[in-house]
TrEMBL record:
Residues 77-168 form the Retrotransposon gag domain. This is Retrotransposon gag domain-containing protein. InterPro entries: Peptidase_aspartic_dom_sf, Retrotrans_gag_dom.
Length: 337
């Protein structure tokens, strides 16, 4: 029979409350450097818990002390990776309810990645659409991030490629089909994904410096700039091509350039799409630099019977216009090599 008084029974229990995690036997000393490197998860709606678990695994396996098992170090360090609502959830779990890492990972995902969220992401993948003014590259990146955010969406590769393809706007779908030599959906899932990856590789990102050949530099440098004399003309490097409904007789080829450029007046007359800002800096032959006005992506060009897409950097070349007789379009190595 309990002989304690009512006051003693109502008094708070000051003894240590066991945590929800039951640690394995053995010592495991945590270094402050390890704790500081741990990723943080707050339990917010937009956070990616799968990414958190991957980063957590990387830190623990890299910084694991000698003689300590991976299971032990993960159980000991996981509470330090949680903040705010996520940490509250862990401390409110029943004492001793977690005995191993797989169990802890399972209850963590059940709490912050329930079945309803899996269903929601599956619906997003099935109904994904390319947005207005969203480039093909941006659409591809968004699609891959969405798929990665739910590793067990249970949608096979064939359907993933089909959903991506059906969500494309018409002009980008035509370009993908042209790059595949027919229709993308007629290829195997693996071949279709590889084609998309190869086609999207090699695009310039912001703050990248590009070296231009001497021929291109001569055309776009300001008249006052000092240009070394041309020793020998290697021949004619121009071809006719069609952009939209317009024929250009003298489009220059420069195999030393890694980009394409177009005169601002030519772009204005073509009405071929919307310009995008760019941070690319072009370095000319004399080491001076010029900043393109804007970037226009995926312009369809026809050379003889070949139709292919190209990105153009728009340059304003000191008052020249498209009717002055000067070369106003230059194609670089990626499109003509």
């Amino acid at each position: 029979m309990d002989e304690r008084t009512l006051g003693e029974l109502a008094a708070p229990d000051v003894s240590f409350q066991t945590m929800s995690i039951q640690y394995p036997d053995g010592q495991c000393e945590l270094k402050s450097g390890l704790i500081h490197l741990l990723p943080k998860f707050h339990g917010l709606a937009g956070e990616d818990m799968h990414k958190h678990l991957k980063e957590f695994h990387t830190v623990c396996t890299t910084m694991r002390p000698a003689g300590v098992t991976e299971e032990h170090i993960k159980l000991k360090t996981f509470p330090f990776s949680l903040q705010d609502a996520a940490k509250d959830w862990l401390y409110y779990m029943p004492a001793g309810s977690v005995t191993n890492w797989e169990g802890l990972k399972r209850v963590f995902l059940e709490k912050f990645f329930p079945a309803s969220r899996v269903t929601s992401i599956r619906k997003e993948i099935c109904g994904i659409k390319q947005q207005d003014r969203e480039s093909l590259f941006e659409y591809w990146e968004r699609f891959n991030r969405l798929c990665t955010s739910c590793p067990y969406h249970q949608i096979n590769e064939q359907l993933l490629i089909q959903y991506f393809y059906e969500g494309l706007i018409a002009i980008d779908r035509q370009m993908i089909d042209a790059a595949s030599g027919g229709v993308l959906v007629e290829k195997t899932p693996a071949a279709a994904r590889q084609l998309c990856l190869r086609w999207l590789q090699g695009r310039l990102k912001g703050n990248e410096k590009v070296n231009m050949g001497r021929n291109v530099s001569t055309l776009i440098e300001k008249p006052a700039a000092a240009i070394p004399g041309k020793c020998k003309d290697l021949g004619t490097f121009t071809i006719p091509c069609v952009i939209g409904n317009n024929l250009f007789e003298n489009v220059m080829l420069d195999l030393g350039a890694s980009i394409n450029f177009m005169h601002l007046s030519v772009f204005t007359s073509l009405f071929i799409g919307h310009l995008k800002p760019t941070d690319v800096v072009i370095q000319l032959a004399n080491r001076s630099t010029v900043q393109p006005t804007r970037l226009i992506e995926d312009v369809l060009i026809q050379v003889n019977k070949l139709i292919f897409p190209a990105d153009f950097y728009i340059l304003d070349m000191g008052g020249e216009d498209s009717n002055s007789g000067a070369t106003t379009i230059i194609l670089g190595r990626p499109d003509v090599a």
